[in-house]
Structures are given as C-alpha cells and as structure tokens.
Amino acid sequence: MTHPDFGDDFERPVAAGGSLVDTLGRPVHDLRISVTDRCNFRCQYCMPKEVFGPGFAFLPRDQVLSFEEITRLTRIFTGLGVRKARLTGGEPTLRSQLPTLVELLKGIDGLEVTLTTNGTLLASQAEALAAAGLDRVTVSLDSLDDATFRQMNDMDFPVHLVLEGIEAAARAGLAPVKVNAVVRRGVNDHTLLDLARHFRGTGHILRFIEFMDVGTTNGWRMDEVVPASELRDRIDAEFRLEPLDPNYTGEVAQRYRYRDGAGEVGFITSVTQPFCATCTRARLSADGKLYTCLFAAGGTDLREILRSGASDEEVEALLRSTWERRSDRYSELRSSETAGLPKVEMSYIGG
Ligand code: SAM
Ligand code: SF4
Ligand code: SF4
Known about the structure:
The structure is a single chain. Strands 7-8-9-6-5-4-3-2-1-10-11-12 form a 12-stranded mixed β-sheet. It has 11 helices and 12 strands. The chain has helices at residues 67-78, 98-106, 122-131, 146-153, 159-174, 192-199, 228-238, 303-307, 312-324, 330-333, 346-349, and strands at 30-34, 84-88, 112-117, 136-140, 178-183, 205-210, 241-243, 253-258, 264-268, 281-284, 289-291, 300-301. It is α/β, with parallel strands linked by helices and 351 residues long. Helix 1 (67-78) crosses helix 9. The chain has a single domain (30-349), classed as Aldolase class I (TIM Barrel), CATH 3.20.20.70. Residues 39, 45-46, 88-89, 91, 116-118, 140, 180, 182, 209, 211-212, 214, 218, 346-347, 350-351 line the site of S-adenosylmethionine.
C-alpha cells in the first residue's frame, strides 16, 4: 500500500506475537499516560487562560489514578504489545514523587519509559528522574525569542530556565533531548530558524509540530498551520537537509539530517500528512479513561474496573475489546466539519 510518509513500500505495523490489532490492523505499542491535568503554563494553543482560569475545575485528587493503578494497567498493557510508556499531562513534573512512578514502571520487563515536559522543573528533577531509570525526555520549547515564548506560555516564563532544564537533563544522562516546537503562523514562525541554529550541533533533536485542532478551546484555524514542507524548505535554504529513514514503523516525525553533519531535525506533520495508518498509540487520562485517538470525544473508563476488585484477566479483556473496536483515523478525515466536533482537551488526554 501507499502511505503519505513512507511511500509505496509502506507496510502496516505488525502486532507483537501476531495477536492484538484494531479494525485497521494496527497493534498497540505505545501508551501515553497523563499523570495530571494541571499545568503551570497556559499555552494559548493548549490551555487558554479564558477557559483554564481560576474557576476551572481540575480533577479532584481521589479521581486521579494512583501510581499503583497506573503501573498495574501498564503491566497488563505490555502483555498486549505495549513496549513504550510516555508520561505526559498537563505538566507531568507537577505530579508529586514522579520519579517513584518511573521506578515502578521500569520494574516492568522490557518497558521503555519516557517523559514529555515543558521543562520548567527539570533543572531540579532531572537527576532523580534519570536515577529512577527514565530512558529519555522530550522538552517543549516553542521559541528562543524571550518575548514570543513568554507570550506563548502566557505565564511570562523565560526561555533561559527551559534551556537550563534541557542542559540539566543532558547532564543527568538523558541526552539526546528531543525539543518540540509547535508552530503557529504569525505567532512564532518568525523565530524558527533561531531554534534550528541553536540546536544544530548540540546533539539534541529539534522537532517542529504542526499546530493541531486538538480539543475545542484553542481557536484553531487552518490558516495558522505552517505546513512542515514549508518549514523544511526554510531550514533547507540556510542549512542543507537530507531525509533519513524512520527509526521504526509508526514513528511520528519525518527525520532529516543536516548535510554538514550537525545532527538531525524532525517535522511532525499531523495536519498536512497524517500518519493514522501507522498509529499504535493508546492514551490514558489522569482519571483512568482509555482513549484510542488524540481527537476522541470519549474514552473507556478503566478506573471503575480497577477499583471494583476485578482480576488482571478481566481488566485485560476490557483493554483488548476496546482496542479491537478501534477504527480512529481522525487526521486522515480532517475537514472544516471535523474541526467543530466534540473532542477532549490536550491537557487532559496528554500530548
Ligand atoms: N506539558 C507538557 C509539555 O508541554 O511538553 C506535556 C503535555 S503537552 C499537552 C504535550 C505536547 O503537546 C507539547 O509538546 C505541546 O506543545 C503539544 N501541544 C499542545 N497543544 C497542541 C496543539 N494544539 N497542536 C500541536 N501540539 C500541541
Ligand atoms: Fe501545559 Fe504542555 Fe499544554 Fe503548554 S502544552 S499548557 S505546557 S500541558
Ligand atoms: Fe492516531 Fe488519531 Fe492522530 Fe490518527 S488522528 S494519528 S488515529 S491519534
């Protein structure tokens, strides 16, 4: 079959042990775990202040899964093919004792554990996270221009403290760090070459993400999406790029290397070149709902079955039947109509 990212010789991902696949033949490989719906930023494309203001009702503590509940679910998921867990949120480093969760998850045989963070608390937490066994970290940083970044996070948070977080992660052994920048036309697209110049040659891997219509509150407009092809051409005009093969089937970023050997840069083309055909990601919200797509309107409640005294086999049967029913391919179907459909918020479901 032909795939927009991988061409004619694209093959659908194969399930571990040939077992669990969804209705489109996709296995489950990655579990994104939101450990909190709270955040210390108010990025306008994710948690606009007008919606997530002082009156916003975040999840009460007793509705949030405990570390033991998350670990149990993840262990059961690994029996179904999951090999990678990514901790996210909201801002995952706000969850108290996060390194303890990393340690518990790393106790699961063969599981890779990674983290996506805004980097604000990394300087103080990187060492403990690395010591707990964290494999890798992705830090979100949308601009190196201080005024632009302060405006985008809407908390007046300066760039230099995020850069310190990235360096702390590298010192703790979590290098190379992936750095994610969401690009919005007219907001930060004038500062992208600065990001490319800064991270070239550092060993860290910068990835540009197309602005997505996640949730219903971020005022998404197609004309604010800068196609990855345009970004790539702009970088290529200054530093010659050449494409790299994906590391594995289902990798979300299109990878390029600088021809002069200064490292690599990636583009996540969720809007202009969707990659639903290879999407092997399940998402667990902080309150224990399982979502099979970033753009889903609803999820399967796992907290209830966990807290009802069900056996591992019963929980596994629910995970299995949920995945087997999956037919999501929102990004392939995106249109002006789908943009207005009900969807969960990114800060709740995790990126
Ligand atoms: N708070 C952490 C962070 O910012 O890295 C983790 C959660 S955040 C929801 C995960 C990722 O989603 C971040 O890289 C963020 O930039 C990205 N993101 C959030 N809203 C987005 C949107 N509307 N379009 C594209 N990416 C988005
Ligand atoms: Fe918070 Fe991350 Fe969303 Fe920004 S993108 S508001 S840092 S959860
Ligand atoms: Fe996966 Fe849904 Fe994104 Fe498609 S739209 S890649 S199915 S999360």
